[in-house]
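Hey all, quick one. A colleague (J.T.) asked me to put the zinc ion job into the tracker so the inputs and the structure tokens live in one place instead of scattered across chat threads. No bug as far as I know, just bookkeeping. Sequence used:
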Amino acid sequence: MPELKTLPQRKQRCAICERKVFARYWGPSEASWGNSAWPVVNEGRCCDFCNWMVVIPARLAPMIASK
Ligand SMILES: [Zn+2]
């Protein structure tokens, strides 16, 4: 059985939970949808949920620990 060819697409999945990021974020460039997943994932975008629940706490943790 031949493998189905997928249309060329940019990554559209959250790099953390792998949910599809909402279509409203799709746009002409990589930066136009989702949120940066750094520092949890070096390269990739994440959904709003993971941004607030995973990425932002991960950014804040070193600041809190250093106090
Ligand atoms: Zn996510």
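Adding what we noticed when we looked at it: Helices lie at 48-65. The beta strands are 35-36, 45-46.
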